[in-house]
Amino acid sequence: MARDIQMIAKEREIVNNTIRSFFSSRGYIEVETPIVVRSPGMEPNLVPFETTVIEPDKTCHAVALITSPEYSMKKLLGLGMDKIFTLTKVFRNEEELGLSTGSGSSTHNPEFTMLEWYQQGADYQTCMDETEALVKAVCPNLPPDPFRRIRIVDLFAQAGLDLEHLEHVGDDTDSDAFHRSFLNKIEPNLGVDPVFVYDYPIYQASLSRLTADGKYGERFELYVDGLELCNAFTELTDVDEQRRRFIEEAEERRALGKTVFPLDEELLRLLPNIQNPSYGNALGIDRLHMIAFGAKSIEDVMLFPAGKLFL
Fold first, then answer.
1. Domains of the chain, with CATH numbers?
2. Cα angle value 71/72/77 (rounded, 5°)
3. In angstroms, rounded to a whole number, what is the distance separating the alpha carbons of residues 42 and 254?
4. Which of 85, 112, 122, 188 is the Cys-Cys partner for 126 at CB 3.0 to 4.6 Å?
5. Separation CA 284–CA 166 (nearest Å)
């Protein structure tokens, strides 16, 4: 049975108000970032919505909708802001449209709401503390116990897998082998209670700083009842390393036949201005809403889910 839309709207108001109050009390400034950009991201696994900006003289600019506000947020750090957050719509193509399709995912929607926040002068361990405090503030229904924390390499070892020697099938990349193993052997066994999974292998390091031994990325994800809720890093501030990773991801996108967007040179120019350490976190508001109010499907926390918009 469909949930009452007034109830959904009221619940979302409570979630958003709690988030804003939480960050305001900690000295953060709420910012707005662009949704239409030239460089929406280089992640090989993501497919942005592409479009064209047309000037009155018919000059055309190839652009896309953001998959995350990350690049813009880090530019603001590079311009001197030190504690910022945003609540914004983000867009990812080739996502399931939801349960109304009959076979879609109950936790995905091509348009969804994301919270991102950043702080200069602290690392991902501090970010875990802050993330736990935020989630508990929004979801008082969760157990009061501290959230469990476990390194990826130890999770794999518990499942009888060697993270350094995962099985590859066909032309698998290391990331392909990791994702398949994680989805099939790790994620289903994370349990109900909240757990931080951290220190990802280098090929999963994305925009994160490396650990002191250089073997892992200072990255974590939070899972609640088996649902991935956020993705966070100690931010990479080495511009040469960041350029190298962008180029590497661009080549992987090209090999997959996906659009290769231009490198964001403004981000690269501002990156050295960011303190080391600094952290950032991207958290899905729709999934947080689900956890806070016991919803089982993302459709139950959206007023206009894609599964109903496009059928």
1. 5-309 (3.30.930.10)
2. 95
3. 11
4. 122
5. 29
Q: Express each pLDDT in 22-50 by its tens digit.
A: 999 999 999 999 999 999 988 988 999 99
pLDDT digits (tens, 9 = 90+) for 229-262: 999 999 999 999 999 999 999 998 999 999 999 9
Cα angle for residues 217, 218, 223 (degrees, 5° grid):
105
Burial class (CB in 10 A: 0-12, 13-18, 19+), 67: buried
Q: At what angle do helices 285-293 and 124-138 cross, to 10 degrees?
A: 50
> Which residue type occupies 151?
R
| Helix, strand and coil in the chain, % to nearest 5 | 40, 25, 40
- The structure's pTM equals 0.94
End-to-end CA gap in the chain: 18
